[in-house]
Amino acid sequence: MSTGNPGLRQSMAWIHGWLGLIAGWILFAMFLTGTASYFRPEITQWMQPELRPSVATPAQAAESAVAHLQRTGADDIQWFITLPDARTVATRVFEQKKPGPDGKPQRAPELVLDPLTGAPVQARETRGGEHFYRFHFQLQLPHPWGRWLAGVCAIFMLAAIISGVVTHKRIFADFFTLRWRKGQRSWLDAHNVTAVLGLPYHAMITYTGLVTLVAMYMPWPIAANYAEPHDFGAAVYGIPAEREAAGRPAPLAPIGPLVADAERRLGGPAGRLVVRNPNDAAATVTVYRSGKASLNARAPSVSYSGADGRLISRSPEPGAAVATAGVMLGLHIAHFSAPALRWAYFLMGLAGSAMVGTGLILWAVKHRRPDARPFFGLRLVDRLNVAVIAALPLGMAGYLLANRLVPAAAAGRAETEVATMYWLWGAAALLSCLRPLRRAWAELFALGALAFAAIPVVNALTTERGLARSIAGGDTLFAAFDVAMLAVALLLGFASWRSAHVGVRPARRARTALPTVEAVNA
Amino acid sequence: MLEPVGLGFVGLLAIAGASHRLRGEAGGPGERARRLMRAAGWALLIAAYFATPGALPGERAVRFLGGVSLAGIALVLLLSARPRAVLAPVRWVVGRRETGVVRR
Fold this sequence. Notes:
The complex is a heterodimer. By secondary structure, chain A is of the alpha+beta class.
């Protein structure tokens, strides 16, 4: 026994180190942007300051949206309507148009409507919080490559978690241990603390992230058993069959009463609805319950005949496997969570980012020799660490600043905002290579702190919803957003100060005198 | 979220006070006191679970794990900076208990 365990630990340590390193930079970006995504609707609201919350019930919002669509797309194939709630201020509508004269499908832009009047609202074009959300599992790569890469990294992460637990032999003895200014030992402590205390979250978020896209990673069981993916959706989730239009005109039944009836049957507020073949005798209206009413993110639905409002079907009660998959998705995206729990998710996400970041730095510190010139791989890891850990937050701040600085009516401004993030991130990463390592860390963190501190200032200068006015007017979301930006600025400022100034405390014993990042990089 | 964070913090503080590494800052409790503190810490963690509200089925477990994890990270950060100050309540309890033992 005694000869077997050390071997296993060493193997696991090797796996842990290399898997963590190879996937670490992408995982850090996934963790950080995914963490921001917990506030996706709030970020979108902040990025469209022209929109003000208006109080409308889901039934009212559905009625006003359908009234608008009747004027603009009465002969569309389908209408997808996402209803507003406490976290979103507008109704979002997507029309699937009939094919054009050339037989090709016509693409219609997403519409943003006032929930009360149904009129299109004039707000700046932006991807909002959706950008961070999409990036965290698509990595701005073409479909499906981004999702595949994210999936591979998630598998690496899961393996790193398991191997890390096996490797960590003093997991209970070191449970409360965090020693500052002791070089490699401090990085190891920080990595262990963020990893062990957040272990339930890290394991949950990694596993559920993988399961969420499992049908894409392993499509063969569905392909082998169902002729079309829609057949799988119909069998498992009760998605109504896509019926062809009958070709006989029939006015659409009033939507409001259908939504109200659906809410009663589903036991929760409506979140979205799909109208197929509107104004046709074969029209159907499917109302989905909001995902906030349950841990299971796969919300149930009811379908009505669009012509006479008759109930057609209700999604079947999910079996154990489908319910488990739905709960896993729900645990990952946390739509069910109230503000306090959402903040807990957010803070744990930051702890996850810190865990990955400290792990990456630890690898570099461990492989550095005080008397030897760093080898190429170590220099590469050092520079990539700076490029991701210190430069990505700067890019994210740039995305938010661009939202305020690019003219609201500029064409293609949403793409400009996104491009700003990548250009800033890339430029900062490249320019940091021209600086000594220690200064690169300190300077990029300082720039990040300045950029985040500038966000409330620029917001106050370019909109009427600055911090002081928000506090005075009870505009909680905008006030909280600005305060959060200042808090991030403080955090990055602290990181910059530590990178620049904090050295190592003299070791009491010779064997504890491990080299520090600061000492070596100076 | 206050219940799992608050009770979780106190429970973990008791367990930290019973740990070998922090025994000095915790007032040097004896073996029996350390066992009692550890038991009290776990009891508080269990109490935190049952005190955690959850409107939806399964939400309580999510809130509990999230709250206790955050409490743990906060505790470790505080212990890393001011261990004696953070463990002062534990020292106070240990001191009272030891005094009581002497009187008996």
